[in-house]
Design brief:
Blueprint lengths: L1 E6 L3 H13 L4 E7 L3 H11 L8 H7 L2 E4 L3 H14 L2 E4 L3 H4 L4 H8 L3 E2 L8 H8 L3 E11 L7 H5 L10 E8 H7 L5 H9 L7 E7 L5 E9 L2 E9 L10 H14 L8
Parallel strand pairs: 1-2, 1-3, 3-4, 4-5, 6-8
Antiparallel strand pairs: 6-9, 7-8, 9-10
The structure holds nicotinamide-adenine-dinucleotide (NAD).
Length: about 270
């Protein structure tokens, strides 16, 4: 049995806790959660009709074999530091936090803890990793989101962008993945995932479109290299609990967990 804990009981975290308790009874010993909002834990307990243990971040990390972070970029950085201290494997959803703190990468490699990064809301990572074995000329992510999926981002506030004035759709950001993650820490983790899998955060290009016309989070990935060209697009249903988060991101965390548990399977 692998001891697992979850940090953050929002859209992704609560979905994961429910799935862990329902599906993985024989393979996972569920330790508990760390959540700063006591109301979120109460809601989760109520919907599960079950008690769940709450711990401080360090206590949870020290007790578990694997901790799944589904909280925020800043929390992800804390989780990495504590995981290094306690030799705990981690799964990170707020990958942007890692991207903005690259000094952690050599420490992770030296300590040899496993850091799992789910594919999140984007498609095409397998092809990007394959293309990296040759030469990649260009990686471009274009993310189109409904206005509610972008509100409150630091870049929008700093640049005084009034989303309510957008009549149809508007490109509100163009830049590198590292700039995108810094400006939109809760909205564009996919850019961080792509950067880690591909050509890095300073070469991966990101365009963000705020749209009144769409109801889904649409990510279009273009890769060009000496292999040819790939264009792939995912049209993601936003989660009911958090419109910034796509349902596919929750499912990708579950798929990663499934992989860690080492279910026998044939194929990729
Ligand atoms: N990798 C991806 O493709 C991808 C996709 C969607 C979301 N995300 C990221 O995953 C994270 C979770 O997403 P979500 O939709 O569940 O968010 P959410 O806002 O619904 O939930 C986050 C929860 O974490 C809690 N929290 C915040 N700081 C904490 C801390 N220090 N310790 C404990 N709990 C803390 C909050 O109270 C909240 O309940 C976010 O950072 C989001 O940006 C990543």
């Amino acid at each position: 049995m692998i001891k697992v804990g979850v940090v953050g009981c929002g859209a992704i975290g609560s979905h994961l806790v429910k799935a862990i308790l329902a599906r993985y009874k024989k393979t996972i010993s569920f330790c508990g959660v760390c959540e700063t909002d006591a109301g979120k834990v109460e809601n989760l307990k109520r919907s599960l009709k079950k008690a769940i243990r709450s711990y401080s971040l360090e206590e949870l990390v020290s007790r578990c074999d694997l901790v799944i972070e589904a909280a925020s970029g800043k929390t992800a950085v804390e989780v990495v530091k504590l995981a290094l201290r306690h030799n705990t494997d981690i799964m990170l959803m707020s990958v942007g936090g890692l991207l903005l703190n690259p000094q952690l990468l050599p420490k992770i490699r030296k300590k040899k803890i496993n850091v799992y990064v789910p594919s999140g809301a984007v498609a095409g990572l397998d092809a990007l990793k394959a293309a990296r074995m040759g030469k990649i000329f260009r990686v471009q992510l274009t993310t189109k989101k409904p206005l509610a999926g972008l509100s409150g981002a630091p870049y929008i506030n700093d640049n005084k962008i009034d989303l309510n004035k957008i009549k149809k759709e508007q490109i509100i950001f163009e830049g590198t993945a590292i700039e995108a993650v810094a400006g939109f820490p809760k909205n564009i983790n996919v850019a961080a995932v792509l950067s880690l899998a591909g050509i890095g955060a300073r070469k991966t290009r990101v365009r963000i479109v705020a749209s009144r016309l769409v109801k889904r989070n649409i990510h279009t990935l273009e890769i060009e290299g000496n292999f040819g060209k790939i264009v792939c697009c995912s049209e993601n249903v936003p989660s009911l609990e958090n419109p910034k988060t796509s349902k596919l991101a929750m499912l990708s965390a579950l798929a990663t967990l499934d992989g860690i548990l080492g279910d026998v399977r044939i194929g990729t």
